[in-house]
From TrEMBL:
Protein name: HEAT repeat domain-containing protein
Organism, as annotated: Paenibacillus ginsengarvi
Pfam families in UniProt: HEAT_2
Length: 573
């Protein structure tokens, strides 16, 4: 029985419910449908009854029209509810899948925001997913299909988070979804699925990898070729892919060769490092853990140095030498340190047009953090017209006592208007962040005379960073600077106040409050930890004054922050 006419009728009844029951009397649309209903009523009694109800609604006077329309609507809905279908066309087949053991008692309404973040667009989704991960909501089996599907998300940080942190925790329970959603012609999401499938199946996924390496999209092929690096017996295929026309495939092949690490693989990687694919090969060569790979690069670097020293050609060997050094970064072998020392010991190399290579070599030398490297860097102090003075200073910081460091280098820092001065200032900034200071914990990192010297050449930021002990001269310098356009909402004023607090300036509370009350309130949009830390150092007696200042603030969030500090001070009183 066709019930299309009944759905059409329900639409008209709904329209009249909205318009008002009084509009049903003589309604043209109902009149147009009545003959068809009456004809259907000749074969089905239910249609005869509906046709009768439609006629009553059309003919009812306004006082009785509401009851007639309601009766028609109730009858129509009752009939439609009995005509629904629960089956679908097609053959019945068994459901294929895995037996999920992951389950939680999380109610769906708590799970819904996580599912929406996985399936919809908009801002804040990554934070929602990270929060759900911390709350272990991903352990609910209902999340797995959506999590696998989100590997295709256009916001790259989301699939990266799912790929690296979330999906691996499911183990084999995610395998069915990964395989069912994997497509050979897919994009980055398909490549991620392939990597996860291989992570679960290992050698059992080799057949899939071989098929993907041949028939997949560029992204899928690249992922498959790189994964073939786990199987040394696939070296011939990987070598073939290293000559592919597409650079994405060649790059993946280089990473695979890096993992295989055989003599043939090393030879091919070295060829790539010396070819047009130099940039593609640098990272795979660097990641190769085979010792002979580093020795091969070191040997070719010695040959390039000889070419530069001969003076026949500089530009091309210098570019290649720079690529070689980048591929050796982080290598712990002493042979690498020896190469760096060899380079920086060559007067012809330093005198040639190889500035980028020289900087790379000097940086790498200090990054080795080996005593012999630091001792050599210290010897560069007076060589080459003090070209490497900043590296010598940083090495000296690791090797010399604080007083000797000052005596050796301070006389050179007369001004930052010359290259030596600029280099030393830059070295002081870098050294201040040297977290691997070899000094004993009780020894200060810098001689206090540095602060006086830096104040003399008006190097304000370093004075603020290095000032530690009470010093009337430094106190006067910082006070003078602090009173130049003070603004508690600006990092410069905050930095100066922090330095004054650190050296024990006695009138610090009054200075801070005078700056706050002096007009900076309009520029306070947010208070960071350093600003709040200064406010918390106020004596308890300043609580009421700080509260009064808070009431003048424009932004409610900042006002709340200041009031919280004022309450804390009041509790201490």
């Amino acid at each position: 029985m066709s019930i299309t006419v009944l759905f059409d009728l329900r639409s008209e009844v709904t329209r009249l419910f909205v318009a008002g029951s009084g509009m049903a009397a003589g309604d043209r649309r109902l009149l147009g449908m009545l003959p068809g209903l009456q004809k259907l009523g000749e074969t089905a009694p239910v249609f005869q009854r509906i046709a009768s109800a439609v006629q009553q609604a059309i003919e009812a006077a306004p006082p009785a029209s509401a009851a007639a329309l309601l009766e028609l609507g109730a009858l129509l809905n009752a009939v439609l509810y009995t005509q629904g279908k629960s089956d679908v066309p097609g053959e019945l087949t068994d459901v294929e899948g895995t037996a999920y053991t992951t389950s939680t008692a999380v109610p769906y309404r708590k799970l819904q925001p996580l599912l929406e973040a996985l399936t919809q667009k908009g801002q804040g989704r990554l934070e929602q997913l990270q929060a759900g991960f911390e709350q272990r909501l991903f352990h609910d089996f209902r999340v797995i299909p959506a999590a696998v599907r989100a590997l295709d998300d256009g916001y790259s940080e989301i699939p990266e988070f799912l790929h690296k942190s979330v999906l691996p925790q499911y183990g084999m329970e995610a395998l069915y979804e990964l395989r069912s959603q994997f497509r050979m012609d897919g994009g980055k999401g398909a490549a991620r699925r392939l990597e996860l499938i291989h992570g679960l199946l290992g050698l059992d996924a080799l057949e899939l990898l071989l098929e993907a390496a041949e028939a997949g999209s560029v992204e899928v092929r690249a992922a498959a070729v790189e994964l073939l690096g786990h199987y040394p017996e696939q070296l011939p295929l990987v070598l073939e892919q290293a000559d592919d026309k597409k650079k994405e495939i060649r790059s993946a092949a280089y990473y695979a060769l890096s993992r295989i690490g055989s003599d043939e693989a090393i030879r091919r990687l070295h060829e790539a490092l010396a070819s047009k694919d130099r940039e593609l090969a640098i990272e795979p060569v660097r990641l190769c853990e085979t010792f002979s790979m580093a020795l091969t690069v070191i040997g070719s670097s010695e040959q390039l140095l000889a070419q530069i020293e001969s003076g026949e050609e500089v530009s091309r060997p210098a570019q290649q030498l720079l690529a070689n050094l980048r591929s050796l970064e982080g290598k712990p072998q002493p042979e690498v340190t020896e190469l760096l020392i060899r380079l920086l010991s060559s007067a012809k190399f330093v005198a040639s047009d190889t500035d980028d290579v020289q900087v790379a070599a000097a940086d790498m030398l200090l990054d080795t953090r080996q005593p012999e490297a630091d001792r050599f860097a210290l010897t560069l102090d007076e060589k080459y017209n003090r070209k490497f003075i900043s590296y010598s200073f940083r090495a000296a910081y690791r090797l010399l006592p604080a007083a000797e460091l000052f005596d050796r280098f301070a006389p050179l820092l007369k001004s930052r208007r010359n290259k030596v001065g600029n280099d030393l200032i830059a070295a002081l900034y870098k050294t201040e962040y040297d977290l691997d200071d070899p000094r004993s914990p009780g020894q200060t990192a810098f001689d206090p005379r540095w602060v006086t010297l830096l104040a003399g050449i008006d190097e304000e930021e370093l004075v603020c960073r290095l000032a530690t002990g009470a010093d009337r001269e430094i106190e006067a310098y910082l006070l003078k600077k602090c009173k130049e356009k003070p603004n508690f909402g600006h990092f410069r004023t905050v930095r100066l106040l922090s330095a004054l607090h650190r050296i024990g300036y006695g009138d610090m509370p009054e200075l801070l409050m005078s700056i706050l009350e002096g007009g900076g309130k309009r520029q306070l949009y947010y208070l960071d930890d350093e600003q709040l830390g200064l406010l918390r150092q106020l004596p308890p007696s300043y609580g009421d004054r700080l509260r009064a200042f808070a009431e003048t603030l424009t932004y409610e969030s900042v006002k709340r922050q200041v009031l919280d500090v004022a309450d804390s001070l009041a509790d201490q009183a």
